[in-house]
TrEMBL record:
Pfam families hit by this protein: Sulfotransfer_5 (PF19798)
Homology family: Belongs to the class-IV pyridoxal-phosphate-dependent aminotransferase family.
Organism of origin: Thalassotalea litorea
InterPro entries on file: Class-IV_PLP-Dep_Aminotrnsfr, P-loop_NTPase
Annotated protein name in UniProt: HAD family hydrolase
A Gene Ontology biological process term: carboxylic acid metabolic process
Amino acid sequence: MTLRLAMWSGPRNISTAMMRAWENRPDAMVIDEPFYAYYLRASGKVHPMQDAVLESQPQQWQQVVEQLLQDVDRPLFYQKMMTHHMLDEIDLSFCGELKHCFLIRNPANVINSYVKKISEVNDEDIGIKRQWQLYQQISEISGQNIPVIDGQDVLKNPRAALSSVCEQLGLDFDEAMLSWPAGKRDSDGVWAPHWYQRVEASTGFEPYRPEATELCAELQAVADDNMEAYQQMYAKRIIL
């Protein structure tokens, strides 16, 4: 029987490195941001490599759900989910068929990284308020005591963080999760050339380095507005 694990993150976290870690397990397959094309079509947002993304994936959320619940030939099906892609019209009942983990990051650090790729940013773009909503909704739907991990904690101690997540999910930790070959993956979304340069060069989680963020007043206001939702999640995180 396949365990389907949805890892819920906002953008500009360590979500792609986390996908690398799980994909490096011999018992796992992964899917990269399966709702991205749906999100672009339904929201009207314009992102880099827009046409390529829209052509690469199903654009109806119902079709995406079918993908996530399909039969696979691996014991573990890891699903890299972006919280901001989950628009309100999506029926979340399928989440009862999955196991879940939430990956969080301080909003100021998210925004500081995001604007290096896309110059404008608002609440919806970084998905932190939506992440807190989804945590509450999915907890009720799934009945799972969902683990929460902070990206900073993972970088400080990847072994402890991943071991704790595996334990809570009833999985054996695999040393293969701590390092992987550099390079591209067939499983990466077509948007990888714009977003994944650092991950493609990586062979493991980068050592933690304190982040200096100097946001303008407008961006700091967005960060401040998202801090309460982040803190709600942070209070539930796995303490290593």
